[in-house]
TrEMBL record:
It is an enzyme of class 7 (translocase). This is cytochrome-c oxidase. It is found in: Cell membrane. The lineage of its organism: Bacteria, Pseudomonadati, Pseudomonadota, Gammaproteobacteria, Oceanospirillales. GO terms for biological process: aerobic respiration; electron transport coupled proton transport; respiratory electron transport chain.
Length: 841
């Protein structure tokens, strides 16, 4: 029997709109800080990123002013170093990645036919971590304590000996804080793309933009943890004296370069891929035909993402690595041009076979094609080791980097912003102001950075604050600096156009560009819930094949057109076929992400000021906030106590064994595994390469105690696996006792590992060996303790009736952590306790 309210809604689409708005709508005033809606948070990411972009742009103008003439004293050497370091840092970490992630957060659910991202509170936490981390980092400029060792923070320049002030600490702690945001967004986007596409949208029918974002998000998940590890190690060295990068103690400063570029080179493609996704979205629309070679583009995306992780030594050709390694990484650096060329040829073929309309967004796309191809050609030049040796650390490298990153990211970004502006605001941009902005930006950019190739070839080093008259660089630097102000004028024109259009822009008709993807089936500006009903999609071009689709969706003629239960719902679909598997019910607005991010910000500030007791207190407070947040889940009264669904609809995800939280945990553990493997890489790298590495004659870790601890965690995992198998068979007898037994075994593992650490009597401030061993054991203790806490909470939730045969989902999530702990703990035992006994130092 259908309720009276439900029948009324089915006959009254307006009532359905109003009820959905009641459920999904954003609060006003102070409570707007609790918003978890992806549309609002995506806009917040982008607006905040644009503010940081303006800060980074001002810093760039200061640099060009200083270099415009020889022997200038516009800035002192120390201030100049701070400004150049912060320019690169802000643009790479506070603008490029967050801006593109913000655009993806805004667009992806709309493109794949979902109402929101799958973990909306995680998105909110990521935004506040980004905001607070960016504020902490940029505040160092105001107090003239900004980092001054370059945006790459090479050791030993960034170590305590050569950078004794807090500048490096601001960078290390601020960037680590910001990267929590990046990884959170990466996890969110991966799971949302794989598990929340609308019914029928199989992987081979997914918009290309979603493919690009999926690759970007996976690369973030794998690529950012090595830098997080490096930042943690360097901060430990600076704060307490653990000699990870000091040769005298057994460390090696080159370890920092390896960890940094394990992140840094994939980041180039992390920035490029979403921008290329914008190009692959816009060209078919303005060419009036489907893209040529969809499958080739998808293959190129996957190949590029894979190869990018094998190129990090491309940045280290001059550090003294063996010639065989130089040859390998040189070949790999040139090989990555192949998938890039595939995409360029696909774009050109689509334009050639279509009837292109040179609207404003396409003007920026054409500028991108010209600039990025030039940047790619200089990239192939730099992949040649002899040429790289000649121009390494000159302005040629700076020019190449800007051609690839600015040309490859900024121009497509502006094209995308102009393209989606009507969706944001319901108004069209100004063609006249937009064209003025483009030409000033295009000419100013090339005037600035094309000339820098010449100064680099003439031998001008990067990171010098001035130069002598008569060097032959004067006229080129002056022209470059003048052009940089033309570039700034062009960007100012673009920003002015965007700001004015919200008030004076011409109202846009529905789907003004005649686009093919689902985001244009939305209202303009979009509602908080995106779609009244969720369609079945059988084609890559749903709006071209069914122009009436937006109207039937708005009338509630498709899936999940019900709001009487008061839940935020969307489809959960198969990751490959797009077949509906469950109904995902999402959490609503919450203070917990803000509270947790604020507590972590206090931790960051306390570490900066060396108030370690306060930092420890707020680590605990942040943990309490996060655990309290996790409590409102599954069958909790604030989540979904009522599991009822319409006849014929699939079950709620919390009543299954394969909800999105399981996928989110799996992707988080991939990121965690990247961190752990980077740690093992550091251990074996120092063991085999560092000239002063000291391996004790008698290994300090007790193999017996560590082996018993490993047996305890294995036994605890076996208990968890048994109860999860029982839940799959709808059996929950003795569930609570099993959780407490597993927690006791986990506590035994933590206690034994802690005892082994105590007995080892390490000297982590004296030798790198002991410092690295301490970090590994603390890592194991943290994860073991986390598993114990989560397992105890599961036992408590059984008592409250939130977990059981009726709601079996959460134990499967916890089981993944136990499996991870078993694998990583035994790898640690092998690396730290068994191998040293087998092969010695």
């Amino acid at each position: 029997m259908k309720s009276v309210n439900q029948e009324a809604i089915e006959h009254d689409p307006q009532q359905l709109h109003e009820d959905l708005h009641t459920i999904w709508g954003n609060p006003k005033g102070l409570r707007s800080l609790t918003i978890v809606n992806h549309t609002t948070l995506g806009l917040r990411f982008m607006v905040t990123g644009m503010v940081f972009f303006l800060i980074g742009g001002i810093l760039a103008m200061l640099v060009r002013t200083q270099l415009a003439m020889p022997d200038q004293n516009f800035m002192s050497p120390d201030i100049y170093n701070q400004v150049t370091t912060m320019h690169g840092t802000v643009m790479m970490f506070l603008f490029a990645i967050p801006m593109l992630e913000g655009l993806a957060i805004y667009l992806i659910p709309k493109m794949i036919g979902a109402r929101d991202l799958v973990c909306p509170r995680l998105t909110s936490l990521g935004y506040f971590c980004y905001l607070f981390g960016g504020i902490i980092l940029t505040s160092s400029l105001i107090i003239e304590m900004a980092p001054s060792s370059g945006w790459f923070m090479y050791t030993p320049l960034s170590s305590k000996e050569f950078a004794p002030d807090l500048g490096s600490d601001f960078w290390l702690l601020g960037i680590t804080f910001v990267e929590i945001s990046a990884v959170s967004a990466g996890v969110e986007l991966v799971v949302s793309i794989l598990r929340t596409r609308t019914q029928g949208m199989a992987l081979h029918k997914m918009p290309l933009f979603a493919w690009y974002i999926l690759a970007m998000a996976l690369m973030i998940v794998v690529g950012f943890p090595p830098l997080i590890l490096g930042s943690v190690l360097l901060e430990l060295e600076r704060a307490v004296g653990m000699p990870f990068f000091q040769i005298a103690g057994g460390g090696d400063p080159l370890l920092w370069q390896h960890l940094f570029w394990l992140f840094g080179h994939p980041e180039v493609y992390i920035i490029f891929l979403p921008a290329a996704g914008i190009v692959s979205t816009l060209i078919p629309v303005f060419a009036g035909r489907p893209i040529v070679g969809y499958g080739w583009v998808v293959a190129a995306i996957a190949i590029m993402g894979f190869i990018s992780f094998g190129l990090w030594v491309h940045h280290m050709f001059t550090v003294g690595i063996p010639q065989l390694a130089q040859a390998f990484f040189s070949a790999a650096s040139m090989l990555v041009a192949v998938p890039t060329a595939i995409q360029v040829f696909v774009w050109l073929a689509t334009l050639w076979l279509g009837k292109p309309k040179m609207k404003l967004p396409m003007l920026w796309v054409m500028g991108f094609l010209i600039i990025f191809v030039c940047g790619g050609l200089t990239g192939v030049m730099l992949a040649l080791v002899p040429f790289n040796w000649q121009v390494h650390d000159t302005h040629f490298v700076v020019a190449h980097m800007h051609y690839v990153l600015v040309g490859g990211m900024f121009f497509p970004l502006i094209a995308g912003l102009y393209y989606w502006l009507p969706l944001f605001s319901g108004r069209m941009p100004s063609e006249n102001l937009g064209r003025w902005g483009f030409w000033l930006t295009f000419l100013g950019f090339n005037g600035t950075f094309l000339i820098m190739h010449w100064t680099g070839l003439l031998g001008m080093p990067r990171r010098v604050y001035t130069y002598e008259a008569g060097s032959g660089w004067e006229i080129y630097n002056l022209l470059s600096s003048v052009s940089s102000f033309v570039l700034s004028a062009g960007i100012a024109m673009v920003l002015l156009d965007i700001a004015l259009h919200f008030r004076f822009g011409k109202p846009a008709k529905h789907n003004p560009w005649n686009a093919d993807t689902l985001e244009w089936a939305n209202t303009m500006p979009p509602s908080a819930y995106n779609f009244v009903s969720l369609p079945t999609v059988e084609t890559r071009h749903p709006l071209w094949d069914d122009p009436n689709l937006p109207h039937t969706m708005a009338k509630g003629m498709h899936g999940l057109a019900v709001a009487s239960h008061g839940r935020r719902e969307m489809w959960g679909t198969d990751s490959i076929t797009g077949k509906v598997r469950e109904i995902i019910h999402l959490p609503g607005n919450s203070w917990w992400p803000l509270f947790a991010a604020a507590a972590l910000a206090v931790v960051c500030i306390s570490l900066l000021t060396r108030v370690y007791a306060l930092a420890g207190i707020f680590v605990v407070i942040a943990g309490v906030f996060l655990l309290r947040w996790s409590w409102e889940n599954g069958a909790h009264p604030n989540a979904a106590p009522d599991a009822g669904v319409k006849p014929g609809d699939p079950p709620l995800h919390s009543r299954t064994m394969d909800g999105p939280g399981l996928w989110a945990m799996a992707v988080f553990l991939i990121a965690n595994g990247s961190f752990f493997l980077s740690y093992l890489f550091g251990w074996f790298y120092l063991w085999t390469v560092s000239p002063e590495w000291q391996m004790p004659d008698i290994p300090p870790l007790s193999l017996l105690i560590m082996g018993i601890a490993g047996g305890a965690v294995l036994a605890g995992c076996a208990v968890i696996e048994k109860l999860v198998r029982g839940l799959r068979q709808q059996r929950d007898a003795g569930l609570r006792a099993s959780f407490y037994l597993a927690a006791a075994l986990g506590a035994l593992q933590v206690g034994l590992a802690g005892w082994a650490l105590w007995r080892a009597d390490l000297s982590p401030t004296q030798t790198t060996h002991d410092a690295v061993m301490l970090v590994g054991l603390v890592y194991a203790l943290f994860h073991g303790g986390l598993a114990v806490i989560l397992t105890v909470l599961q036992g408590m939730r059984v008592g409250y009736g939130y977990v059981g045969a009726h709601a079996p989902f959460e134990p499967a999530v916890v089981a993944l952590l136990w499996r991870y702990n078993v694998v990583t703990f035994w790898l640690l035992v092998g690396a730290l306790a068994i191998l040293p006994r087998m092969i010695g130092g």
